[in-house]
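Revision sheet: structure tokens.
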Amino acid sequence: MRSAGDTWSVVRVGFGALAALLIGYLAVIAAWPQVRDAVPAPLNGFGQPNSALSIAVTVAVLAVLGIALNRSRDGHRRGAPVAIVAGLAGISALLGMASYWRCHDDSHPTFFTPVLWTASVVKGGSPQQSLDTGACPAELPVALNVAQLSALAAVFLSIVGVGMALFQARLDRLRVYFARRVTAVVDLDDDGQSMIAAVRRTLDPRSTLVILTDDPDRPCIGQARSQGARIVTVDFDRPATLTDVSLWRKLDALYLLAPDPSANLARLATITDHLGTRDGRIRIPLIVRIDDPWQATAWRAKQFGDPSRLWAPDAVGRYEVTARRLVEHVTSDPAITRILLCGASRLTLALCAEISQRQLERDYYDQPSLPQTLIVAEDATDYLNDHEYSRRQTGLPHDRPALTAIAAKPAVPLMMSLIDDDGADPRSVAVILVDDDAVRGFGTRLAVRYPDTAIHAFDPAADQQGAWRSAPLIGRLHSYPLTMDIPDDAAHDAWELAARLIHERYARPGGTSASAPWHELDEFYRESNRRQVNNALWMVEAIGGHSWNTWGTSAAPWPAQGMQHLSPLDQLKAMGFDESAIFAMARAEHEDWCRFYRRYGWVAGATRDNSRKVHPNLVDWSDIEADPDKLDKAVASLAATLSKLRELGYRSRPVAAAE
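Predicted:
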């Protein structure tokens, strides 16, 4: 399915070529009118002096091209059309010079007369000019009509651009006021700016992206505006200015991206108090920037049990995003069987957590285990203990996969001995040098000795985006920075990731439209998967009597021993739900699913037909209860959803146990 960005790219190329052809033809016949006589009929009618059709066609092509150029890759509007104004002025100058090129006599010098007359047209003056012998050109060519219109359009757009620049803040507030749905980003710095592209990728076409900032003149804010965001200025020292913005009742998602996590949490408390608690079943996605990976893990675990039932919370930070990108790079190479994490820092903890989460995902798909991972640092044992303690605190398995600590001062000879361990193939080892001064400079020294070994070395000066795609200078040495730049094909929050992973387990290339791989899946089915996860968050707490806050609990056997052999009803009971809650949750899920499908125009019918939006299960719950097979399927669907979330590390526990 072609995206909006792809469509506009095709329009830009097609209409750009057509505009160049038309403008070039008009310029040629303006300079040499006899050329038109050589063009076969009926094409020689195009460009005839005073031809309204020729003017209308050319102006229409330029208008469509201008609209296409004013659209970004994702189909949303760009910023001020400076390039369009310059292009129109250039077209006016070209056509003017072509039309006046032969206009000179004894009192009107060659070259300078066409230049001055062309400048008059570009400034918006009349195209009609005269020599001593009469009007020149004798018949006003269509090129001059188009030149005059292009010049007037350039002047008009310039005035509009200046006006919009002067009143941009008021216009943005007005657009936010009239927006039906809003995705809000509160505070932004240069690191967080790279998140905006990820937010744009999952932004609902009906939602308006809004940046709330106290300094609209920062370069990162200008970049966000160029990506189509609306900018609203607030005073963060006065919380009332934050809640006074008229967007909170139509909020689709909230991103708190200040580098200071305490500032983010203070603003979250202000916004939550303003909105109050809610009984609705759809939680609002919430992403809070917390760079410290352990703090992020603890906050995320505790906030899963949000008592306001307002947010579907997740955290994002430089260390976790960097760890995600590093692990993705390393594990994408099937030849790698060992990973050496060299150095001790917060990135070390983030890498351990990411490796453990990736192992859960591999277990979920019944895939092979991740490569053996060794932590090499003087404090390696302490860091490993911290990681295992954090996993236990969240109720997750701490030994999947088993990590090994080598408590020794990092040194190149030690790393060489580990790479050469038992005559191992250097290509089977990946080395990650974290942001620890103790391992600074190791990358080059190891890459020279082991050109076939993948080595990722921290470099604070590396480009935020280009570093991940750049070619290595020595062997397979790659430099990387701490970053919040999320890859195009990656989910940027836990719930998007869960929806994607749950779908991919049952995706079948070449199957129905509902079972296509995620990157090919229609947005309707993607949203249906997101709805399923979001509804599970709500009903497990509101109906099931559970809490998602598992911080400080012991890990259950992983995966739950014997559960796969139980019936769906017994599986849910083993998770701690009583029978009345189970059937109430099954009903809530069915009714929410029906509401979603009906909202998109689906109707009930005897046989499913995706092309006609017909589904046999779009019936009342009483019909489901009356049919034992349908009731069993509803319970089985509920058990599958909660089991899949549990296998991915998102598990609930009874409230009584949480207190």
